[in-house]
Amino acid sequence: MALAQAEAVRDLVSDAHPGLDVSLEVIRTSGDRFVDRNLAEIGGKGLFTKEIEAALSAGTIDIAVHSMKDVPTWLPKGLGIFCMLKREDPRDVLIAPEAAGFGDLAPGAVVGTASLRRKAQILRHRPDLKVVPFRGNVQTRLEKLERGEVDATLLALAGLKRLGLARDLISRGLGTILELDDMLPAPSQGAVGIECRADDNGVRQLLAALNHEATMVRVAAERAALEALEGSCRTPIAALAEFANGDSDNGDVDADVGAATLNLRVLVAKPDGSAVFETTRQGPGRDAAALGRDAGEELVGAVGPGFFDEAAAAPAES
User: Is 11 a catalytic residue?
Assistant: First the structure.
């Protein structure tokens, strides 16, 4: 997935700047290597970015391509996300050979996922299901499912689309796109961000041609909520910001995205799904970060003292 995204960015940069020499440097991260353990046990989401950001800071590479949902809210000094590609569909897909939704899964069915966000929302709807840790790249997880190691799993629709797998899985009845009321996505899911050194004005100018402003605004709201909640891999948090009139490049959003109406949903839960808190915000795109912070701060107050400590103390496996 990371390689596919990096190749897409390389091609976009090359197309936008003919004659520019653009090459790929593949960096294997800790998050890629330790696929047999939950992220919460081995250092969290930063494991997908730290080696890449070290190379960026050292000047070994000029830009870094990230799935934004894997990027911590605090970036290393001197680095910044200055460009985002147009966001893909942020929803999740239930992959299950014999189920078109949570309601179709047999009592006690085993669902594999390493995401506490997904686990909490699954158990919110179906507390009888057994949710077990399940990591690896997309193909590995699909192979494990085919071998019967689990009865179902969940994957991001954006990733399946980028790998060219979504249409086949859905058309064969193996995958069902979940409605947002059933599974709110992770903050920034479906968004690809490009990081560079803050003082590298030349690179920033090159990236400006690729930036999708509406995606930047949506992600700003979601990441602000995540930061206010001090979210970690042990805290099930979901968030989605959407423009009231869409966010395509075809005129669905006002030319000035700062004036367009942004709707934000944020959810926080206990890992076992026994307690779920949600809130919404609406306002102009220019206030995206403020909307996110306000929503996150409201939920911090709503859950009460000790909630996040309890979530952090929850077992990493079930």
Answer: no
Selecting among 70, 247, 272, 294, the annotated active-site residue is 70
Cβ atoms 47, 135 nearer than 8 A: no
Q: Are strands 192-197 and 79-84 parallel, antiparallel or unpaired?
A: antiparallel
C-alpha 245/C-alpha 47 separation (Å) is 36
b (16+ CB within 10 A) / e for 218-235: bbbbbbbbbbbbebbbbb
**Rounded distance between C-alpha atoms, residue 71 and residue 65, angstroms:** 10
Dihedral pair phi/psi, residue 6, rounded to 5°: -65, -40
Question: Is the dihedral angle over the CA atoms 162, 250, 69, 263 positive or is it negative?
Answer: negative
Q: Which residues contact 315 (CB under 8 A, 6 or more apart)?
A: none
**pLDDT by residue (tens digit) across 112-122?**
999 999 999 99
Q: What is the mean pLDDT of the chain?
A: 89
Q: Angle at the Cα of 217 (from 213 to 220), degrees rounded to 5?
A: 135
Phi, psi of 148 (to 5 degrees): 85, 15
Question: Cβ of 119: how many Cβ atoms within 10 Å?
Answer: 24
pLDDT attached to residue 251:
46
Question: What pTM does this model have?
Answer: 0.89
Measure the CA angle with vertex 189, ends 186 and 195; round to 5°: 120
